[in-house]
Design a protein that fits this description.
The chain is α/β, with parallel strands linked by helices. Helices cover 43% and strands 15% of the residues. It has a 7-stranded parallel sheet with strand order 3-2-1-4-5-6-7, with helices on both faces. A 6-stranded parallel sheet has the order 10-9-8-11-12-13, sandwiched between helices. Helix 6 runs antiparallel to helix 7, helix 10 packs across helix 14 and helix 13 crosses helix 15. The two termini are 25 Å apart.
């Protein structure tokens, strides 16, 4: 069936955020099926070690440094009449490499990770095309567009143009992949003719051999503190995470500390915004920023919080906490796409201070129940969310099977 061309909007390594975790595992899976040629972008978070790890897997690669400022991407998008998301990831270097790679190698399938990269698929490519959208980005920008003023208009334009691109890709692809059934249903609802699109669901998995509470000790500083310790993790310049952290620190924690004065809230994740860093001034709140290993923080948590008002697809942060056998309190949005049971595998509450505070208080007053929920959460993840099982459908979608003969690597880096 030939080689695979994999196009991703970021170097997948290190897999330290939701999109790169999924992208890294997809690439690893594809590399078991055929030689994989990888075209992607490097940003400020890309390390030499990450590039080296990619090149250990890839038969050839083109890694483009992304230096386009958002303002310039916005201007280019206006001139070209395309979404800012596409303009920010437009590169003549990468486009040339894609055409050269298809001409040089027997490319039987192209796998696109994230909608920004669909622009690089040549119109005349006659092999298989699999597009992993993960989430319906146009719907996300529609929710952002509810804001007033110029920024609301900008988000509305982005939503409209991204919806057109999603429709083009879904109609063009042999398979369009979403991260959950609700996201798949949402895309179907937004297509002019959903019958022309083949929509598949491949959920996120979790590496339970790494996220194992038996392998790590709780963070010593947090574990030594007297009161309940709540953890929130994630990319801390991502607007839904920023909103959730601020809401928890400013509104939920005062209610919790009224009953449990020693309770503390820890915000752990890369690139905290100024607004997030300012939360450290609030009583009982600590902002850690980027850490080398999230597991000790999760292991030290009395409860992991995920109070997201806007959540697209399956939340890796939730699966990681569950795999670490931690009880999780989360909003209905953050629970999307994970078929766990409220009260058995986790606790679900509407984004209401009184309701969440009540559920947390009940959990804090019954440590045995918290332990049982955490243990059930880990077993649930072990049973259903291993990456190997989750990504098995890729074999069918690209028309290959694991263990098929592969050609030797030919290094062709750009």
């Amino acid at each position: 069936m030939g080689d695979i061309l994999y196009l991703a909007h970021r170097v997948p390594f290190p897999p330290n955020r939701g999109d790169t975790i999924r992208s890294a595992h997809v690439l690893r899976k594809l590399a078991t099926l055929a030689p994989v040629h990888v075209g992607c972008f490097a940003d400020q978070g890309t390390s030499a070690a990450g590039i080296a790890e990619l090149r250990d897997l890839a038969a050839s690669d083109c890694i483009v440094r992304r230096r386009t400022p958002l303002a310039l991407a916005g201007l280019r998008s206006l001139v070209a009449g395309i979404p800012v998301s596409l303009a920010a990831f437009r590169s003549s270097q990468l486009a040339r490499w894609v055409h050269e790679t298809i001409a040089r190698y027997d490319i039987g399938a192209i796998v696109v990770f994230s909608g920004q990269m669909g622009q690089y698929v040549p119109p005349d490519f006659d092999g298989r095309l699999v597009v992993d959208l993960c989430d319906v980005d146009s719907a996300k920008f529609e929710s952002y567009a509810a804001g007033a003023g110029l920024i609301g208009l900008v988000h509305a334009r982005e939503a409209r143009l991204l919806a057109c691109e999603e429709q083009r890709l879904a109609t063009r692809a042999d398979a369009t992949v979403l991260i959950s059934e609700p996201e798949a249903d949402l895309l179907r609802e937004r297509l002019d003719d959903p019958g022309k699109a083949r929509i598949e669901v491949i959920g996120n998995g979790i590496d339970t051999a790494i996220f194992d509470p038996a392998l790590v000790k709780p963070h010593p500083d947090i574990a030594a503190r007297p009161g309940p310790q709540f953890i929130f993790t994630g990319q801390m310049d991502y607007p839904p995470n920023v909103e959730a952290a601020i809401w928890t620190a400013r509104r939920l924690m005062p209610a919790i500390r009224a009953a449990f004065p020693d309770a503390e809230f820890h915000i752990v994740g890369r690139e905290p915004t100024r607004a997030v860093r300012a939360l450290s001034e609030a009583a009982g709140v600590e902002v850690w920023g980027e850490v080398p290993d999230m597991r000790p923080f999760l292991a030290a948590a009395t409860c992991v919080l995920a109070p997201l008002s806007l959540a697209r697809g399956v939340q890796n942060k939730v699966l990681e906490a569950m795999a670490m056998a931690r009880p999780v309190l989360l909003s209905p949005g953050a629970a999307t796409g994970i078929a766990a049971r409220d009260g058995q595998h986790w606790l679900v509450s509407e984004l209401d201070v009184a309701a969440m505070a009540k559920r947390l208080a009940t959990l804090l007053e019954d440590s045995e129940r918290a332990r049982v929920i955490g243990a059930a959460a880990r077993q649930f993840v072990l049973d259903r969310y291993g990456w190997s099982a989750m990504l098995t459908p890729l074999e069918r979608l690209v028309g290959l099977r694991a263990g098929a003969p592969t050609a030797s690597k030919v290094r062709h880096a750009a």
